[in-house]
Amino acid sequence: MKILPPLFSPAFFTALLLLTACSVRFNMHGGGAVNPDLKSISIQTFPNEAPTVVPYLGQLFTQKLQDRFLAQSRLTLTDASPSVELTGAVTSYTVAPTALQGNATASQNRLTVGIRVTYKNNVATNESWEKNFSAFTDYSTTQDLSAIERDKLTEIVEQLTQQVFNESLGKW
User: DSSP alpha helices (H): ranges in 22-80?
Assistant: First the structure.
């Protein structure tokens, strides 16, 4: 019986066959569903129209939304004839108790932010929409909101920008 070198063993050929027959592809841009004709996006500043106004919230949301689209899509940011336009406003900012203790006092508060977004697709107009989104984060009532507000709003803005991206280009 002739012994084959390890390179030519049946296990090697089986492994080679499996490796060449199977492939896995990952796409972080909506599973390939993004219209290839979309080239650019315009994201206008989201004004704060909430009854409770946090002066920097609209600008924070707008900047993080622009950052997300630039990082997670191939679109370029422009104001001149964009393929896609995103406009909207911050519509709500609320703080409410969420977890009551035995003595009927709250142990946690919930900070919630709502936004209205208009997505205008200038390439495929049937894909345009207007929707409301909201996100929240909880915090202990022992914490002073003014001391943690910026961090909590950053968490909420991350959630909101992900929701808007998923609804518009992510196709989730």
Answer: 57-72
Report yes or no: 93 and 113 within 8 Å, Cβ to Cβ. yes
Strand partners, 138: 110
pLDDT digits (tens, 9 = 90+) for 42-68: 999 999 999 998 999 999 999 999 999
Domains delineated in the chain: 34-170 (3.30.160.150)
Q: Which one, of 120, 58, 121, lies nearest residue 90 by Cα? A: 58
| Residue 63 per-residue DSSP state | H
Q: Is the dihedral of CA 5, 11, 16, 17 positive or negative?
A: positive
Structure tokens at 99: 């977890």
Mean pLDDT for all residues in the chain: 85
Six-digit token string for 159: 């959630």
Tokens of 149: 């507000």
Q: What percent of the chain has pLDDT over 70?
A: 78
